[in-house]
Design brief:
Chains C, D: This is 2-oxoisovalerate dehydrogenase subunit alpha. Chains C, D: It comes from Gracilibacillus halophilus YIM-C55.5. The complex is a heterotetramer, with 2 copies of chain A (327 residues) and 2 copies of chain C (333 residues). Chain A has 327 residues and is of the alpha/beta class. Chain A has 13 helices and 14 strands. Chain C has one domain: Rossmann fold, CATH 3.40.50.970. Chain C is built from 11 helices and 7 strands. The chains are: A alpha/beta (327), C alpha/beta (333). Chains in contact: A-B, A-C, A-D, B-C, B-D, C-D. The structure holds thiamine diphosphate (2 copies) and magnesium ion (2 copies).
Amino acid sequence: MAVLTYIQAITQAMKEEMQQNEKVFVLGEDVGVKGGVFKATEGLIEEFGEERVIDTPLAESAIAGVGIGAAMYGMRPVAEMQFADFIMPAVNQIISEAAKIRYRSNNDWHCPIVIRAPYGGGVHGGLYHSQSVEAVFANQPGLKIVMPSSPSDAKGLLKAAIRDEDPVLFFEHKRGYRLLKEDVSEADDILPIGQAAVKKEGSDVTIITYGLCVHFAQQAAEKLESEGVTTEILDLRTVYPLDQEAIIAAASKTGKVLLVTEDNKEGSIISEVSAIINEHCLFDLDAPVRRLAAPEVPAMPFAPNLEKEFMMNPEKIERELRDLASF
Amino acid sequence: MAVLTYIQAITQAMKEEMQQNEKVFVLGEDVGVKGGVFKATEGLIEEFGEERVIDTPLAESAIAGVGIGAAMYGMRPVAEMQFADFIMPAVNQIISEAAKIRYRSNNDWHCPIVIRAPYGGGVHGGLYHSQSVEAVFANQPGLKIVMPSSPSDAKGLLKAAIRDEDPVLFFEHKRGYRLLKEDVSEADDILPIGQAAVKKEGSDVTIITYGLCVHFAQQAAEKLESEGVTTEILDLRTVYPLDQEAIIAAASKTGKVLLVTEDNKEGSIISEVSAIINEHCLFDLDAPVRRLAAPEVPAMPFAPNLEKEFMMNPEKIERELRDLASF
Amino acid sequence: MDNEQNKLVENHELLLEMYREMLRARRIDERMWILNRSGQIPFVVSCQGQEVSQVAAAFALDKDQDYALPYYRDLGVVLHFGMTTKELMLQAYGKADDPNSGGRQMPNHFGQKKNRIVTGSSPVTTQVPHAAGFALASKMEKKQAVSFVTMGEGSTNQGDFHEGLNYAAVQKLPVIFMVENNKYAISVPLNKQIACAKISDRALGYGMEGITVDGDDPFAVYKAVDEARKRALHHEGPTLIETVSNRLTGHSSDDNHLMYRTEEELDEAKEKDGIIQFKEYLKEQQILTDEKETEMEAEIKQEINEATEYAENASYADVTTLAHYVYSQEEAK
Amino acid sequence: MDNEQNKLVENHELLLEMYREMLRARRIDERMWILNRSGQIPFVVSCQGQEVSQVAAAFALDKDQDYALPYYRDLGVVLHFGMTTKELMLQAYGKADDPNSGGRQMPNHFGQKKNRIVTGSSPVTTQVPHAAGFALASKMEKKQAVSFVTMGEGSTNQGDFHEGLNYAAVQKLPVIFMVENNKYAISVPLNKQIACAKISDRALGYGMEGITVDGDDPFAVYKAVDEARKRALHHEGPTLIETVSNRLTGHSSDDNHLMYRTEEELDEAKEKDGIIQFKEYLKEQQILTDEKETEMEAEIKQEINEATEYAENASYADVTTLAHYVYSQEEAK
Ligand SMILES: Cc1ncc(C[n+]2csc(CCOP(=O)(O)OP(=O)(O)O)c2C)c(N)n1
Ligand SMILES: Cc1ncc(C[n+]2csc(CCOP(=O)(O)OP(=O)(O)O)c2C)c(N)n1
Ligand SMILES: [Mg+2]
Ligand SMILES: [Mg+2]
């Protein structure tokens, strides 16, 4: 065991997979000598050479598209989008191609690519370096979307994503990169994609969330603990397709559910979670399912006060939680 | 009044707006001499010339991007994507640009563009000429998404979209193009974007849906009428941002709600509708909100039997409706 | 005429094989139109007018090593890579045994792994970066293989064309980009698509070789592809080849091209039909006799008849398979 | 040297104005770095090394008619189009009165309608099709205006570059595409971005004029833009101009460029600094005196001091405005 930050866990996962399987390679903008703008690929070019750690031209559709081609061939590309916001030029390759290759070819071809991208705000990134983009892709059968909330999860899930036989979008919270630290096993641990995890047991209220918000939820839940309110926290981990069973279990357990996302509310991941609960747990609910999300604006502004107002934080969650608990 | 098909109503709307405002122009692939692959722009080049009816190179990001530039300048571009499936290369221009121009410039610039595209299946189009793509965009504040269900609505809403000060995605059901016919007013009628419409009053069950599915819902509801079950049908018309008030009213009215979409279920428009109902009408519900949607596969296959199995139809709705009514 | 081309000219058997492949593509396509017009199949998108380019190019490749990433008109390419007439008919009917997609995709959306034909979609040009990806992978694995990707000239205006060619050029990947310029993107004529003189003028901006050849001339196409392949395998990078010919049909069975094209233009195009020119050459050179021709036509006709009947009687995929293969092992569920 | 360029050489006042604008851009940028390093502002992305190209180009435009679609390094362009030092400082601090975005966007995401500066975003190259759109509209409205759009050389590898240039070329739109080639895309050097010799080699593939000039030479840049503007207004179509110079700083305040760049390379770049060369020229020609220079520097310094103080003390937008302006009249709600 060693204490790793979230980003170190990610680097570690890529490194181990590259050591074990020579078909794994990474490509993206500045991933080589610079080691990525956040240093996620630091040290990789030194260890694996520029053949397997490829600095690409500034062209996201090519990064995805070349990766998709290589994946169909039989390689295991790990493509980096420098910021999740810049995945948009690659949407056609991801939705029209990666997601549909297995289905359209009736299982003749498949496309085991991983596309990593840092998402989320709170880093003075303004509109285009702060977005949560998962909802754009969370309606596309054929894709999987993973958003880990801790270093251990990040490592285990990224390794699983690289070994997965299908395309996986892997979104990493950029503010979590250095904020989140914990002991991470050095073993070759793989976490199953598609399974949510109970991060905290409780019996009064349930929070269902993912990514950095899990961290905020934990902080909020602790505050209420002293007042005798215990919170069940379900971390979705894979936000598409969702782990329905785990959602149903977590919602039914307390009957009071708070859904949290850093994304704006309408059309977000937590809308689907709410719909699932509505379909399956109506008679177990003691209060309407609540959604706590960002305001309906295009993205987070740059000015620090506006950014703070937009961002999710433990206080906002605590407030809702308290209110819901006393419903 | 004259009987118009859905597509004639669309042509008519463009024609009238072009006659009234010389800043309105259309651009897209094959919209000129050919009049569009579905003939939506038929006759326009003859009337307005090739300066205002522009056959573009085969490049959707340019069609959107050039339109966005012209819109910022002060024109009223109506861009056609030949099929909704081919809007994907333009996602960056639509989400990163059109949706965010007003907000990011603090109201200094704005972008009154309309992007039209035929969506939906049932025409032997296979995976890439049948998709419902609205969910990709239905999480982006700054955008509006309109999906009319009848010729009159199509005309009134398209005229409204062209006059709107903000970007509007306008999705037309291609199977509806010639299937749907009705008397359409020749007056300069504008329908408000953002408002759902009750298409049928009823008191036992509520169907909330949009696009061609409204037509199927009406057929299903009629079947049940003879058995004494009356159905309220709410046509969303604008699927983003949603008309919450109308949804809440329609759901509360009967307490039994069936949501219908041709799209696959997870992450669809009706997931958001369900979440809204869940938040606001929990104690008015007599049964869990049901979602009727396509199976979770990437898109509709070509083979006629598979296509039929995938497609929404009155029978599927009738079955669910009957079941829900007797809950 | 250089050596390689000379070899081709002298290899009468090969020339006859090439001719046969072109003819087979043409006759299959013609049959599909008949089936469409008589209501048997809902859709056709044709190779007619481009078979010479397709077949000559494919013959210059190594179909046991190279990867083909064809576009929807490339009947000639996939035939050479090993797709059978029966399989082509199965896909036209959308039947379960269609090896491309089991009837899931529209006709002419090719893909067949065992024959190294990479699965394609409808949105044009997405295959171009894929071709760079295949080349990158085969270069990493030190294989003696190139990837061969085709598209229409209209598709060269998509962003993915630019990004794919640039990527391949920067990393000197073994790819051959072949643009089949038939002068139309559905109804949009060349002068509304591009302002450059030739599509191959784009090669300079990627720092790669570019060449325009007469797509109706099998010798010129063969030579261009053959040289490009050598260049690719010698680590000299990718090549952009433009083959100029004519689309002899509407864009697809849904398109009436006389709405935007004159009869005269079409008649002219038909006169330049590469298959007819090639046949005349073969006859002049006494490589093809009338007898041989009749025999060939008969064989092909029978093959198509059998394939059509087989496909017509074949079953659609069972509806219970609708949700299979979204993800790995989905069918096991 | 042709007439236009001659006129420029002889117009000493204009040359001094140009120099002053370049200097102003440089000094503002330098101040921003100081503010960043001392923790006052979170982010800087620099114009340093590109001011000569930017200012010389902007001077060849008609800022009362033409539209500018600048990218994040174009301090020199926006200054000339009318953005004030105070406004630039307001945006660096993200304050409410920042005319670009009211503090919503990161610094150097320019846009100011009254000065015909079109709002830009972070994803690179999206502005390129917009420029074609502005040109299309002004052509439709028969205005004597061009649209002038810039980007880095790395950004020329995006699909939108290709689609935007092709669109403009096909319809002969009055656009000037200027690529500021500073030889790096963040850390990625030119040889990993492109395989062509010059970015302007791409012009041929669009059938438009293309030219590469020394970005440190104001006369060459001015002439290229001036000629391109005339061509545009004479309906001769768009032009692709590449200005080659050096990035004298890290990519941004978040980047340590010595991780991928040698000290020697950087020293060499600094020696070629266009501003210094231009100053030397002006002095040699006795257009600029030491006295005038001192005065200029002092004036600029004072302007920057005042602007900085003003911006520092200005307020952020009120948090109640967070949800304003998502749609039209939203604020009325
Ligand atoms: C991204 C995308 N946009 C639009 C279409 C619709 N479409 C199909 S083929 C075609 C024209 C293609 O022209 P070209 O590339 O020249 O190929 P050709 O059909 O002439 O061989 C168009 C516009 C598509 N398939 N994909
Ligand atoms: C679509 C997109 N991808 C990635 C980025 C991140 N990024 C910002 S600037 C930059 C390099 C730009 O290089 P170049 O175009 O040469 O401009 P320069 O900064 O050198 O002036 C990158 C990769 C971005 N802003 N947009
Ligand atoms: Mg063509
Ligand atoms: Mg650069």
